[in-house]
Write a structure and sequence with these properties.
- This protein has helices at 2-43, 47-72, 76-96, 98-109, 122-137, 153-157, 168-175, 214-225, 254-267; strands at 142-146, 160-165, 185-189, 192-198, 229-233, 240-244, 247-249.
- It is an alpha+beta fold and 272 residues long.
- Strands 2-4-3-1-5-6-7 form a seven-stranded mixed sheet, with helices on both faces.
């Protein structure tokens, strides 16, 4: 009993002498946690979230590599590059190659090890395919972006909010010539049309044919900035194309488009 009593006396004494430190540490951890939480909530659904995720992965790998090189392997040249030259060169590189680095970080953040992808339901796929090829038969241009992990909120905010279920009839109405929103794009997020009349950045990749019009270049451009999947219908030819990760597949039939959308659905569980 004396041993137990002495033990508790030691605990009480330790807490009394270090209580102030523990309280201060607890308050600091709480404040920092709140700041980080608010910051992440503000970034949620934006391109910044994808960039932050890719940057976190990059810095984690870089720090781990630096620790391994400096502590376990006597690679003096590599250590000098990582610890001395790297920090000096990194800032100018980020300034000079900002668009390319931003896209690379987004791609890194899309890695299946670090992210979950959007999964469209079967009903959504059916409605998209029906609307797409109905528009294609009538040679009505369309641009449909399916948001995945990297948010498109900045483009949604500049469009017209809709917040509707994905329905083929609604999509065809939006893109029908003469309607106010037919020249923009619609954005689909978590099985709902969230906005229409959205304007996307045009790709500046010189490798694409000059025959590609503004709608196709906008479809490719948004996939360079995010991991969205974009369906494009040409109003000149009625052909259907798909843009993913800065690349485009042209003149696809209904089976090919459905297969791509189903492959996306099979990649991961639905994002809540």
């Amino acid at each position: 009993m004396e041993t137990v009593s002495e033990f508790w006396q030691q605990i009480v004494g330790w807490l009394s002498t270090r209580g102030g430190f523990l309280l201060q540490a607890g308050v600091e951890i709480f404040i920092i946690s709140v700041i980080v939480y608010i910051f992440l909530r503000l970034l949620q659904g934006t391109r910044g979230a994808g960039i932050l995720k890719g940057l976190t992965v990059f810095l984690g790998v870089l720090i781990a590599l630096t620790v391994v090189v400096t502590r376990w392997f006597p690679l003096e040249a590599v250590e000098w590059v990582l610890t001395r030259l790297g920090p000096v060169v990194m800032l100018p590189l980020f300034i000079l190659f900002q668009p390319e680095i931003r896209r690379a970080l987004i791609r890194l953040g899309e890695n299946p090890l670090f992210s979950m992808f959007f999964r469209p339901h079967g009903h959504v796929t059916d409605q998209l395919v029906e609307a797409t090829f109905s528009l294609a038969r009538d040679k009505v241009g369309a641009l449909i972006a399916i948001e995945r992990q990297v948010g498109l909120s900045s483009y949604v905010e500049r469009g017209v909010r809709i917040d509707s279920e994905v329905a083929a009839g609604l999509i065809k109405t939006i893109f029908w010539p003469g309607t106010p929103l037919h020249d923009g794009a619609i954005v689909i997020r978590q099985q709902r049309i969230v906005a229409a009349g959205c304007l996307f950045p045009l790709t500046d990749n010189p490798h694409f044919s000059t025959e590609l019009g503004t709608r196709h270049r906008a479809g490719i451009g948004i996939t360079e900035e995010s991991d969205a999947v974009v369906i494009i219908v040409s109003e000149q030819t009625g052909k259907v194309s798909l843009a993913v990760k800065g690349a485009i597949q042209q003149d696809l039939d209904e089976k090919a488009v459905r297969r791509v959308l189903q492959d996306i659905a099979a990649e991961s569980p639905v994002r809540e």
